[in-house]
Amino acid sequence: MSPYLSFLLLSLVLLDREVVLSQECTKINVNTCKDCITSGAFCAWCKQKNFTNKGEQDSARCDTKEELEKRGCTETNIINPSSIFTPVVDTPLRSGKQPIQLAPQEINLELRPGKPTTFPVRFKRAEGYPVDLYYLMDLSYSMNDDLKKVKDLGTDILKALKQITPFARIGFGSFVDKTVLPYTNTHPDKLKKPCPDAEQYCQAAFGYQHVLSLTDDGSRFQQEVSAQFISGNLDSPEGGLDAMMQAAVCGDKIGWGNNTRLLVYTSDDGFHFAGDGKLGSILTPNDGKCHLEGNRYTKSNELDYPSVGQLARKLDENNIQPIFAVTSNMQSVYKELSDMIPKSAVGELSTDSSNVVTLIKDAYSNLSSTVIIEHNRLPDGVSILYKSNCADETRKNEPKGSCSNVKINNEISFDVTVTAERCMKPQSFEIRPLGFTEKLTVKITTPCQCECDDQRDPADCTSKGHIECGICSCNSGHVGQNCECRVGDKTEKELNQGCRRDNGTSICSNLGDCVCGVCQCHASETPGKQIYGTFCECDNMNCELNNGKLCGGHGKCDCGKCLCEENYQGSACQCLKSDEVCKNANGTVCSGRGHCECNVCKCKPGYQPPFCGECPACPSPCPKYAACIECLGFQRGPYSKNCSKACSHITHTNVDKVVNRKVCKEKDSENCWMIFIMEELDGENQYKAVISNERECPEPPNIAAIVAGTVAGIALIGLVLLLIWKIIAFLHDRQEYRKFEKDKANAKWNKADNPLFKEATTTTMNPNFSGD
């Protein structure tokens, strides 16, 4: 792309942006300076006297600075406040016993709503920055060898810190878990002798105990640690989050100073979190408060474990950076935990904690070289973005600032952009680097009032008021754009009532000013548009468009209606006053079955445009006019005596044969089929018929054939019935004969006996005869 074309495109983009911004300001109906400057970040107000024309509303004073200057408003009369920042406390960065790593320390922001401001924040890692390290150790039985090693390495840990900074302190605390089932073995014998080895001394299980507050005395640390004993609890100890919460919130007892705060957590097991307390019937949520009495966590068996989010929030609020020194089998678990806690690190702890000194040095180096700045809760309606100017890269528009690999005495900076969405009371918030106690206090005010300092002139506002920001502020008893209307006995409400249409709520249709009870319509900002009417309800622009033109380009708009030219008509003057477009090929308007309206045929029901020529849904005229076809074509039928009168609307032609796809076939009075064609002519019920000379008449029946067929049919049916009876009788006799033959073959008697013979005598016994 050529440089000239690039410049042209850029100019068009800027011009379009300027037009859009101007429209954003002018489309808002504002009548005061305050409303203007709070309506848009780029809106300005002109306080110049006599800036508006007669009838022009005061909202014309609100526009972009560039547009106001084009319209003649001088720069000194334009009110266009900007968002600015003012450093209040900006102590230079320094090292030493009381180092300052963050600057400035306090600033004031004047934020115009919608208009952002950007201010720089500087940070430099100071050499020898004080460090507080609190060593929180798991004292379950599996950590026995680790405790022995820590007892030996106590002074070494402090020496390692002294190599980093001469201002180092160290403290110690320990934890196991809640002393209820299923977390701790509560058997009485186990409580008396918690160690598995009967000869070894172990202390009973506990939740968390604070052993040593932060001190720079390494020998005292070693002495206190050496006095500790392992706990005999054999169950998995997972009460670490409970202990971390108490170490974070009990700052006075731990002794946290205004230093870098490190919490070294050592364990070889996992951890419980919110909700796990239900297993031990502990249902009360953790309250995130300090409950140390006699250096013991007294609410261990009453409050549930904290959630990860709850712990992360408390660590963040107290600027504590945790270092998880855990064994290799727990690395993945604590890395996931570290991902949810800002400014935390995970290191692999050897089985006997012999590498704890190196681990702490490496973790501290990684944490301190990463600088993250963020803010606390912002006031409602305020947004913030960060641009990080790191040594190796620049990152823009992020919700927090972040730089890695920041070396000691190397200064980095962050550009912080703050925006207020609306006017508000004075507010404040803080920006601070994570893991450090230093902070930047940001105080916000939103200047939403216009300071105009107008010069008073007695002649202003018809001597009945004074100028404020270019517009009249009238004395009591006077109203109007120039205070020209004396209210008198009438109230302003009563005067305004005469400017309300149909007793509505809007005054002069919101397009004019009510002056002494009469509407004075505003001059429109749209070129060529005029606003008029008793209530400013009319204009010459709000009419129908046709082909993208007002009133089709053939009329003028008057109060919402088009006044058309002589040869045009219609609501948008879109129609010619002529029927020519509606005539069919015969020159008939809409085929005589409709009327021409706005150059389009409005047809009678059933007929279709463009010329009302056809009616697809209408019933066929053939059955209706069959009697007329009979009398016209064959001079017979019911209309034969008055055919010319009854069928005058049909013209006909007789032909030898009709060839057409739409042929009608209807029966006449002699039961013959008439073949004809009917074509509808222009007008209503006007037809042209083409009739075939030949009819299709049925032949008379053959009586002899019918009688002969009937007799033959009856005889044939008789013969068939007789044959069926004969077959049935034959089959029945045949079945009876077979049964007889079968009974005959089964009969058994002597040849001398006659099976039919019966003796002539009958013997009867008397039951009462005894034989005497």
TrEMBL record:
Annotated compartments: Cell membrane
Gene Ontology annotations of biological process type: cell adhesion mediated by integrin; cell-matrix adhesion; integrin-mediated signaling pathway; leukocyte cell-cell adhesion; neutrophil chemotaxis
InterPro entries: EGF_extracell, EGF_integrin_1, EGF_integrin_2, Integrin_beta_N, Integrin_bsu, Integrin_bsu_cyt_dom, Integrin_bsu_tail, Integrin_bsu_tail_dom_sf
Domain of life: Eukaryota
Residue stretches making up the Integrin beta subunit cytoplasmic domain: 726-772
GO MF entry, a single one: metal ion binding
Residues of the Integrin beta subunit VWA domain: 32-450
Transmembrane segments: 703-725
Membrane topology of the entry: Single-pass type I membrane protein
Keywords: Calcium, Cell adhesion, Cell membrane, Disulfide bond, EGF-like domain, Glycoprotein, Integrin, Magnesium, Membrane, Metal-binding, Repeat, Signal, Transmembrane, Transmembrane helix
One of the record's GO cellular component terms: integrin complex
Domain Integrin beta subunit tail: 622-702
PSI domain span: 24-74
SMART domains: INB (SM00187), Integrin_b_cyt (SM01241), Integrin_B_tail (SM01242), PSI (SM00423)
Signal sequence extent: 1-22
Disulfide bond annotation, renumbered to this chain: C33-C43, C36-C73, C46-C62, C195-C202, C250-C290, C390-C403, C423-C664, C448-C452, C469-C508, C474-C483, C485-C499, C514-C519, C516-C551, C521-C536, C538-C543, C557-C562, C559-C590, C564-C573, C575-C582, C596-C601, C598-C643, C603-C612, C615-C618, C622-C631, C628-C697, C647-C672
PANTHER family from the UniProt entry: INTEGRIN BETA SUBUNIT, INTEGRIN BETA-2
Protein family per UniProt: Belongs to the integrin beta chain family.
Descriptive protein name: Integrin beta
Source organism of this protein record: Acipenser oxyrinchus oxyrinchus
